[in-house]
Structure formats: structure tokens, C-alpha cells
Amino acid sequence: MDKMLRNKKSIAVFMLPAFLLFTLVLFIPIIQSVYYSLCEYKGMTAPEFIGTDNYKALASDKTFGIALKNSMFFLIYSCLTQLIIGLIFAAVLTNIQAGRNLFKNIIYLPCVLSSAALGLLWMFIFSPSLGINQLLEKLGVDEPPLWLMDTKGYITLPMWVIAFVALWQYVGQSMMLYMAQISGISKSLMEASYIDGCTKVQSFRYITLPLIKPMVATAMSLNAIGSLKFFDLVYNMTEGGPNHKTEVLATHLYQQGFKYFKYGYASAIGVVLLVLCLLITLFINKVVKTEQYEM
Amino acid sequence: MKSSTSFGYEEATTSGKKLSAVKILIYVFLILISITYILPLLWVFNVSFKTNREIFSAPFALPKDITFDNYSFAWTAGKLGIATFNSFIVCVTALVLSSILGAMAAFGIARLRWKGSKLAMTYFLTGMMIPIHCVLIPLFTRFAKLGLSNSLLGLIIPYVTFSLPITIFIMTGFFKGLPNELLECACIEGANIFQVFFKICLPLSKTGLFVTGLMTFVGNWNELLLAMVFISDDAKKTLPVSLSKFVGPYNTNYSQMFAAIIIAIIPTIIVYCAFSNKIVDGLTAGAVKG
Q1: How far is CA A16 from the centre of its chain?
Q2: Quick one: which of B217, B269, B213, B260 has its CA closest to B239?
Q3: What is the DSSP letter of A40?
Q4: pLDDT at B10 exceeding the cut of 50
Q5: Residues B27 and B156 placed together within one structural domain of the fold
Q6: Which residue does chain B place closest to A189, by CA atoms?
Q7: By the CB < 8 Å criterion, does B39 face chain A?
Q8: Sorting pLDDT into bands at 50, 70 and 90, what band is B208?
């Protein structure tokens, strides 16, 4: 058997297809992308090496500044809210018996739906003349907010709206991750804490929380990468408008690359995005130290 | 288990009233949350049957008479019918290919004995951290040269590739968990390596295949950016792309757009309702391992 498992030919047959596909479609393009980001490349002509000019242009690009700011806002907002609200949902749902699956499934539902479709749906709900504003009109509000058209403030109102929709859509994911971890904690630990006189809140604070820390790291890195990659909802709710106020990195990349065909410039945005993704994953795994307890 | 119920009973008798008050509060909270989840969907569903004028004159009433005109318009003129078909072809093909290729590579990493297996695993895993956006431009220009832009194959290839890391990761876990004796037995009986893989290991890891299949299918079915960039021919667009194009600021017929949204999400909702527990547990199992 050992001979069979060490057979070079069969190893090649099993590994090569996936390996080749992965290298050709993922890794070589990434290297190309880094190269393009150092080039003047506008679709029709061949790429021409210009050094770091694209990155210098990025630094003075106002829209890129807004996009970076908005992406950072998404990152922080979604990491924090998903952690807190996801944990609350998970704690509440693990503490009830009747209807647990029903509520769990309802909250998880938007995670499997197309965020393109949900983005459009919420776009209508927050549009100036439909949805919420029709309801506000009925309630007698004279000047309902413009929601997605508003441009005031450092973080504009549309960004808060989109961030809320993103939370609404994806909090089920975090909740399920935490629930899976909480239900893995042994019952006897909880009982021991009750016997020692803990209230439910105390045992959550001193037993559940430390034990689900590894999952916090996992869920947070998922959230962080997800929010940096964020495209569908923004594209379908505002298309980066009004006046580029809701641009994020992904929509800016799409605009520059496939509306204006500035391939080199868009590649530079892509590289920034990639570096951010790698840094944030490292950072979260460093900060949220995973101590292993026996459960 | 027994002791916990008796303990719960003791607690309930000493502070019965307070407990039930907390319980009621919890359920009220959960019901409110559920409403924010269901109401938007119901609203769109309701409005999609109305005429355009009704939307503004009686926004919250039930539609006067139910017609499916909006739906048939969105299905044909909005090209959502073709788009659904395209999405189905692309996603099913990508699902089959990524499951087979991914499972094979996972088997190679988990079971075959060679020096580079750990390195190969790390190599595939880095793929999970890489956003699809970074490779859009090189892939787009390369595929245009190869004549793969505007073809469904040009979508299937990147979809399969981007599904590989998670498939390999989860399946490796499953293959490592299979008992060694089983493989040895098969060897003694004279099975070759492919029979061991296809007839023994794969059938025993059905759960893993189901989980990874579900994750990749859902992801690819909803994917927008890549499909939007790669496909410009109306007849080859996938569902999220056609929907985003049909529903937009330049269209003023709201009820048709609402119907289009419903068409786009209703298949997923039906499947989800039918198998919700399996789907939720499967997707979570995948994410927990990821």
C-alpha cells in the first residue's frame, strides 16, 4: 500500500489539474497585476513600464481617498457590529428551546440570497418616493430624509444605510459561527458555574466569551475580508454616487478599469486591496490571540 | 442532561415570575428582528403584483387584481429567463468540476505520501485570502486574447478556480478522518488508487462534498462583479447581471422591476425553505472549518 501511495504518477494525476488551474488562473494573474500596476496600460496599447507613477497618482486622487475612507469605515463598522450583534443573537438563540431553528433560519436567509437582488430591493425601500418615505409620509413627516441621495457629513448617510443593509444581510453568518462554537461548550462547565453561584450573564462573561475567542478571530477575518471586497450592494444601491461620495475600493477599481479602461491604474487599486486583505488577516490573528482551552 | 433539567426546574420555581418575564422579552425581541427580515421581502412581493399607478396611490394595500404581466415582461423583455438558464449551466458545471478537481487534490494532500504535501496545502489556502478583484484585469485581457470573453466557459474557469481553496480545505479534513485500515483493506483486495478514491473515499465523504458543493454553488450563483466584466452579450448574461441591468435608474416601470427582483430570489428562497436546516448547518460546518 505504501508503494501505491508513493507512486509519483498517481500523485501527479491527483494534484496537477487543480495545481495548474490554480497557478494559471490565480497566481500568475496576481503577479501580472502587480506588474501592470507599475505600467501605463490603457486597453488598446501594450503595457509600458512607468515605475510607481500609478501609486503616486492614487495618493492625489480624491475619489480614491473617499473610496479608501469608505472601505475603512465598512471594515470597522462590520467587524464591530457583526461581533456584537452576532454574539447577542447567538446568546439569545442558544438560551431558548422553542422556535430556535425557525428564528435561526429566518436570520440566516439573506446570506444565501443574491446581494445584487437584495441591494436593489433596499435601494427601492430607501428611494426618495417609495418604501420608507411612503410610510413616513403616512405618519405625517413633512421632510423625509433623502437617504441614498444625501451628501452631508464625513461619513455620508448613504454609507450608513448601505452598512446597515450589509449588517442585515450577513449577521446571520456570524451568528451561526458563534452558535456553533457555543453549543460545543460542555454542559457540565455551565452547570458548575451555576452551582458556584454565577448568574446567566456572569457565566456568559466568564465562561462562554473566553471559550469562543478562537471563533471570534475566524468570524472577524471573514467579515474583514468580506467588507474590503464589498461590491454588489454599493454598486446596486448607489453605483458609488451621488458625486462619488459612496465609492468603495471595489467600485472605484471597476470604474477605472472597465469604464475608463485605465488598466494600469485599476491594477494599482487592486494591489492596494490585496495588501490590505493580507495585512488585516495577519493583524486580526495577532490581536485576537487564540488560546486553546479544553472544552 | 438530566441534572440540567432538574436544575432548571429548581430555578424556575424559585424565581418563576421573573424568568417568564425575561422569556417574553426575548421572544418579543426575536419576533421584532424576524419582522425586519421578512417585511422587506413581503413588501416587494406585494408591490410586484401591482400596477405602476397603484404603487403610488395605495402603497401598502394589497393589489386590486393579481396579474402576472409584470412577471412575464421581466422574464422575456428583461431576459431573466435566459439569464436563469445561463446561471444554471455555469453554476452546475463549475460545481461538478470544482468538486472533482478539489476532491482529487485534497486526496492527494491528505492521503498520498510525498514531501511537498504540506506546502501544497498552504499554497491552496492562500487563495482564500485573495480577493477576486486583483485578478480581474489580467484575466480579462488574457481571456479576450484567447477568445474566452463573452462565453460561458470564460466564467466557468475562474469560478472553478476560486472554488478550489475552500473545497480542498474542507475535503482534506474529511479524507484525513477516514480510517487507515479501510484503505489497507481495499489495497489487499487489489484495488488500484483510483478505485480507492472513487469507490471508497469519495462515497464516505458525502457530507463534505455536500457542504463544499453548497458553499461554492451559492457563492457562484450570486457572483456579480466577474460576470459583469466578462460577459457583455445579453444572451449570455447570468442572473445577477441581467437583473442589475434591467433594474436601474433609467427604468421607470417600478412594478416590473419588483417582479424581476422576485424572479431572481424566489428559486433560492424555495430551495432554502425546503432544506433550510440542512443548508444552514452545511454552510456553517463549512465556515467553521474554514
Answers
A1: 32
A2: B260
A3: E
A4: no
A5: no
A6: B4
A7: no
A8: confident
My answer on whether omega of the bond before B267 falls inside 30° of 0, hence cis, is no
Domain membership of residue B61 (yes or no) is no
Q: B224 and A235 in contact by Cβ < 8 A?
A: yes
Interface predicted TM-score of the whole assembly (ipTM), two decimals: 0.88
- Domains of chain A, earliest start first: 39-116+159-287 (1.10.3720.10)
B125 at A interface, C-beta within 8 A: no
Secondary structure letter of residue A46 according to DSSP: P
Q: Which residue of A has its CA nearest to B113?
A: A6
Q: Do B287 and A99 touch (CB under 8 A)?
A: no
Q: Do B16 and B157 lie in a common domain?
A: no
Q: Containing H/E element for A49?
A: strand A48-49
Q: Are residues B91 and B222 in the same domain?
A: yes
Domain-located, residue B252? yes
Domain boundaries, position B33: 4-47
**pTM for this entry:** 0.88
CA distance A1 to chain B (A): 6
Q: Please write the tens of the pLDDT for every residue from B135-168.
A: 999 999 899 889 888 899 999 999 999 999 989 9
Amino acid at B102: G
Cross-chain residue pair A176–B265, CB shorter than 8 Å? no
Mean pLDDT of A195-212: 84
Q: What is the pLDDT of residues A18-68, one digit of tens each?
A: 999 999 999 999 999 999 999 888 877 788 888 888 899 888 989 999 999
Cα A219–chain centre separation: 10
| Predicted local distance difference test score (pLDDT) of residue A82 | 93
Q: Which residues contact A210 (CB under 8 A, 6 or more apart)?
A: A291, A293
Helix (H, G, I), strand (E, B) or coil at B248: coil
Distance from CA of A278 to the nearest CA of B (A): 7
Q: Is B136 on the interface with A (CB under 8 A)?
A: yes
